[in-house]
Design goal:
The chain is of the alpha+beta class. The mean pLDDT is 90.
Length: 160
């Protein structure tokens, strides 16, 4: 799948929303995850190489809480993108994208997610209304599905 890596969705968040630990570009201690729409705009992709400190109770595997963080940040970015796209808009340097936050996140852990390997999460839109987006996500490592998630994200005002 071809990915448009020109501008990450998180780079278009308004100033107030750029400090998330997982994906905020202005959080110095954060992970700085970057989600990108695919070239056709039908999905969004994030690639993550987690630091060794996030190993879980099973050695050499990512702990479940970090998996939830990755789904959380990527899912809300994806919701923002799908809403933006539905309005016929594109991402550019002047974009201040509408924000979404997580209302519900369901995760199915399929198999351990190994450390020291790139994780890819792909999201697709299930449903979009004026106030919410339902996002389905798949986490893979080397082509193997390790987790799936379904998120309900809700739109927020910039003054939240």
């Amino acid at each position: 799948m071809s990915v448009n890596t020109k501008l990450a969705i998180q780079e278009t968040y308004g100033e107030r929303f750029q400090h998330c630990w997982g994906c905020g570009p202005k959080n110095e201690q954060g992970m700085h995850m970057k989600s990108y729409p695919s070239e056709d705009g039908e999905s969004c992709i994030v690639r993550v190489m987690p630091d060794q400190m996030y190993t879980g109770g099973v050695p050499a595997n990512l702990f479940g809480g970090m998996i939830a963080v990755i789904f959380d940040c990527h899912g809300t970015a994806s919701a923002a993108w799908f809403n933006h796209r539905a309005k016929g808009q594109e991402l550019n340097q002047d974009t201040v994208i509408g924000r979404f936050i997580t209302a519900r996140l369901e995760i199915d852990y399929k198999s351990p997610t190994p450390m020291n390997e790139e994780i890819t999460v792909t999201s697709q839109l299930e449903e979009l209304t004026e106030k919410k987006a339902i996002i389905n996500m798949t986490m893979e490592v080397n082509g193997k599905v390790t987790a799936k998630a379904r998120m309900i994200a809700v739109a927020v005002k910039d003054n939240m």
